[in-house]
Write a structure and sequence with these properties.
heterodimer, A: about 525 residues, alpha/beta, Rossmann fold, 3 domains, 6-stranded mixed β-sheet, disordered N terminus, B: about 375 residues, mainly alpha, two-stranded antiparallel ribbon, 14 helices, 4 strands, about 75% helix
Chain lengths: ~525, ~375
């Protein structure tokens, strides 16, 4: 593998090891029962973007954690500029100019963006924090990279969206002279517009000589952005070559070791019967939303972050308050005050953030699966445990959740399996309408394909599916009909068949000139923040 | 010849089965608590063999743990759900007074003065009402449970004096039917002498009541959907609500339950002291909360068991009782108790941190 890398290195004779190169040599790391990394060697060069790809469990995260100083490798060396490093803590790694940006960065909730960026090293004057100096320097940095509109400086930490949290973490790295920047799935929760901004930033850093390691599941963006692609499978480096020599198909084949065929299947017949209808919904986040979902139909909701899709799901489901408008289930107007009202009416909602809103992480797979149907499984308040186990194991098996037993703590399962537990819970409830908010966020290719197959199956069984996703390919591949939202409005409705990315994007970003309610319109970012 | 190893194997398997069943019944997390309890009992016994006499176990130990134990059982439910009820001591005080008043005056001829049932019902209903008040303040007014019940701790303490005529204790010494609750015994004599020859002194009514309440709440938490809801709310209230649990209703019910049990404790205090005294419940809340955390409940909710709490308040009771028997100064007992709580939680934190590290290792390896 090392030889392959050497062969494909561009003009190695002119620059043997250019300054700022991180040399990873023969790294192995074993955990109980798992060989996470086995003899991995590769170079990350100054001024290049190296993609690091692999399915969940391939060893990407372990490699990043070794770079960050979280783990010590069992064997192997890391060398920068010929200097051998022995990382013992993240602090050491930071001192050497290495920064790993994780998907869920630490953000101080009660403190604004500026202070979050400078946390731990606030500029001081006579022992007092100098707010003016802080603001100036943060604003200058944000302007320099074009983020001043996306990341308002005075927004509090707990109001930040996932995208904004990541930006804060990147800004933290930039202010400390980063030489090697590793990004762990930075775009998994970003919209296309935000992705473009991030790419501009990454390219700019490359031109400034930073070595960038870019971990992602999204193959298309890797081909767009990166110079070389390293692929890990089962802890081993299976390929490292220039991105220009690779196609999407090659990469998938190398990652999974097999061809991934027809991920999206759409063989279903939509009934005429409308199971869910919303009429002129108005709320803190919405200004007149109307839509319909038919039995057996997958209805995609596309839009940018802050368009109000998650909030719409929560308003319909009774978690967030509705100002006016009406909701009809099976053609009859219903009053939904709380989530349990909507569950009784046959709605289901699998939220975007499964850890914060979906699961009771410290409880068992069994209890998490049976939560919604528990009321049907009790007699005089007693849980009929044999019945509960029977039903839970049926759905756990149907979804192929990989768990040692029903009594396993859900928090100990992998992300994809956690998501499947959330879905199992709702399948067991047999809803008429199932709202799925970003069901494939942060899970690997294999598990995604299973979830797509499942959505298709459910629709075939006559369930109406509301499918919210920021991944346009998913929306286009799976939906029978697509609503595009922007800033609390539906800006367009497309038929799933034949809709294109361009059409959806145009509707998602179209400017509204019908400023009928120009006053008191919440900025979309602020609305996003409040929702979280 | 060949049947010898076979028997040995089956013997081992059976032992394993029993041991496993014991561990499962106690809960793996509670094992260290059980070990600590056995150790303390052993040490105390070596110093003072009288400790294990029936007289001491049933008269001193069992009676001393009843009030704290009852309150701790209710408190466990609240803390598992991520709440806190500091007001239980004051609730018991109010119930102690109202029960005494009811017992001395009777209920319009429906239940006569001196009726034990009337005392019990009055005290428990008083507790349910005050507990529901806590629940409403926490849920409807959205006051943080620490502040809400700190407030009602003070308010209910005052209420106890307002309810008592002239702010003075209400004596019930003339009502033997009722005071039986505090001093009565079941099974006065045994047909055969007790093993070891120590004199049989019967089983205190107080202890039986504690036992019954403990078993009922244990069943509630382990086998009923209410218990599931409590664990779910404590683990992740948002997820619980989105999965259709009526969080508000469960919380109000839970504070009412805690209040009701504290009210029962108040009635028993009246029975034991033969007086509905407005200061009867003062100070018990801290001991009860101590027992719950010692029993392995997490301050952040979602974790804890009735079994753990029971082991904890027995451990505290044995420590106090043992130190009394050995003749250690009361002040040292308080210091020991405080040290024990902090030590136990520190150990639990350390173990959790270790488990967390193991978990992130596993997650990293599979991610």
């Amino acid at each position: 593998m090392t030889t392959a890398a050497d062969l494909e290195a561009p003009a190695p004779e002119s620059r043997p090891t250019p300054p700022g190169t991180l040399e990873i040599r023969g790294i192995s790391k074993a955990f109980p029962n798992v060989q996470a990394l086995l003899d991995v060697s590769l170079d990350v060069r100054s001024g290049e973007i190296l993609a690091l790809l692999g399915e969940n469990g391939a060893g990407k995260s372990t490699l990043l954690k070794i770079l960050n100083g979280d783990y010590t490798p069992d064997t192997g060396t890391l060398t920068i500029d010929g200097e051998r490093m022995s990382f013992s803590s993240p602090r050491d790694s930071h001192r050497h100019g290495i920064r790993v940006i994780y998907q869920e960065p630490e953000i101080v909730p009660g403190v604004d963006v500026a202070e979050n960026i400078w946390v731990g090293e606030l500029p001081q004057r006579n022992g007092f924090v100098s707010r003016r100096k802080l603001k100036e320097s943060v604003l200058a940095d944000l302007r320099r990279y074009g983020f001043e509109s996306v990341l308002p400086m005075n927004l509090m930490g707990d109001m930040l969206s996932s995208a904004q949290r990541q930006l804060v973490e990147i800004m933290r790295a930039l202010k400390s002279n980063v030489r090697i920047l590793a990004l762990d799935e930075p775009t998994s929760s970003l919209t296309d517009e935000e992705v473009d901004r991030l790419f501009t930033l990454v390219r700019r850093l490359r031109s400034e000589g930073v070595a960038i390691i870019y971990v992602s599941h999204r193959i298309r963006e890797i081909l767009r952005l990166t110079d070389r692609v390293a692929i890990l499978r089962d802890g081993k480096l299976v390929s490292i070559q220039p991105a220009a020599d690779l196609t999407e198909r090659d990469i998938v084949r190398l990652m999974v070791g097999r061809e991934l065929q027809d991920v999206f299947r759409r063989r279903r017949s939509v009934a005429e019967r409308i199971v869910l209808e919303a009429r002129d919904i108005k709320s803190n986040w919405h200004r007149g939303i109307s839509f319909q979902v038919r039995a057996g139909e997958v209805v995609g909701f596309a839009g940018l972050v802050g368009a109000g899709r998650t909030e719409l799901a929560k308003v319909i489901f009774g978690e967030f308050p509705m100002d006016s408008g009406s909701v009809l289930v099976d053609g009859a107007e219903v009053a939904i005050k709380r989530p349990d009202d909507s569950i009784n009416l046959g709605l289901g909602f699998a939220p975007e953030d499964r850890k914060r809103e979906g699961l009771i992480l410290m409880r068992s797979v069994l209890e998490n699966t049976s939560m919604v149907i528990l009321r049907r499984l009790t007699r005089l308040g007693f849980v009929r445990s044999r019945e509960e186990r029977r039903i839970a194991s049926r759905y756990i098996e149907r979804l192929r959740v990989r768990t040692p037993s029903l009594d396993q703590e859900v928090g100990k399962l992998s992300g994809g399996n956690q998501q499947k537990v959330v879905l199992a819970r709702w399948l067991a409830a047999k809803p008429k309408v199932l709202i799925l908010d970003e069901p494939t966020r942060g899970i690997d290719v294999g598990a995604k394909a299973e979830i797509f197959r499942l959505i298709d199956e459910l629709a075939n069984e006559g369930i109406g599916i509301v499918f919210i996703s920021s991944d346009l390919l998913e929306i286009l591949g799976l939906s029978d009909r697509i609503y595009v939202m922007q800033r609390g409005r539906i800006t367009g409705e497309l038929s799933g068949e034949g809709a294109t990315e361009e059409q959806v994007l145009a509707l998602a970003m179209a400017e509204h000139l019908t400023a009928s309610t120009s006053g008191g319109v919440p900025a979309d970012l602020a609305a996003e923040g409040q929702a979280r | 010849m060949s049947d010898v190893p076979a028997t040995a194997v089956s013997e081992a398997a059976r032992k394993d089965g029993i041991l496993r069943r014991v561990i499962n019944a106690v809960g793996v997390d509670n094992l260290s608590l059980l070990l600590a309890l056995v150790l303390v009992i052993f040490v105390v016994y070596l110093q003072q063999p009288l400790f294990l006499s029936w007289q001491n176990l049933m008269n001193s130990l069992a009676q001393s743990i009843v009030i704290v134990g009852l309150m701790a059982i209710g408190e466990t439910v609240v803390i598992i759900a991520g709440g806190l009820d500091i007001s239980v001591g004051s609730v018991a005080s109010v119930a102690s007074v109202t029960a005494a008043i009811a017992v001395t005056s009777g209920l319009f001829g429906i239940l006569p003065a001196g009726s034990m049932q009337l005392g019990l019902i009055t005290g428990i209903v008083t507790g349910l009402i005050l507990g529901t008040g806590n629940g409403l303040i926490v849920t409807i007014l959205r006051v943080n449970p620490i502040i809400a019940t700190l407030g009602t701790l003070a308010a209910y303490a005052g209420l106890a004096f307002l309810v008592a005529p002239g702010g003075k204790p209400v004596g019930v010494i003339t009502q033997p039917d009722f005071t039986w609750l505090g001093s009565g015994r079941f099974v006065d004599s045994l047909p055969i002498p007790l093993l070891g020859g120590s004199p049989w002194t019967g089983i205190p009514v107080l202890f039986v009541i504690l036992l019954v309440v403990t078993i009922l709440v244990h069943i509630l938490m382990k086998y009923m959907d209410f218990g599931r809801a409590i664990y779910a709310i404590g683990g992740n209230a948002t997820a619980a609500r989105l999965a259709g649990i009526n969080v508000t209703r469960v919380k109000i019910t839970m504070y009412a339950l805690s209040g009701g049990i504290a009210g029962l404790a108040g009635v028993l205090l009246t029975g034991r002291t033969t007086s509905g005294n407005p200061i009867n419940g003062v100070g018990f809340e801290l001991q009860a909360i101590t027992a719950v955390f010692l029993g392995g409940a997490a301050t952040t909710g979602g974790k804890g068991t009735i079994v753990g709490t029971v082991l904890a308040f027995i451990l505290v009771g044995v420590l106090n009782n043992g130190m009394n028997l050995i003749g250690i100064n009361t002040y040292y007992q308080k210091v020991a108790l405080g040290g024990l709580l902090i030590g136990a939680v520190a150990v639990a934190q350390w173990r959790q941190a270790r488990a967390e590290r193991a978990r992130t290792r596993i997650a990293a390896a599979s991610a």
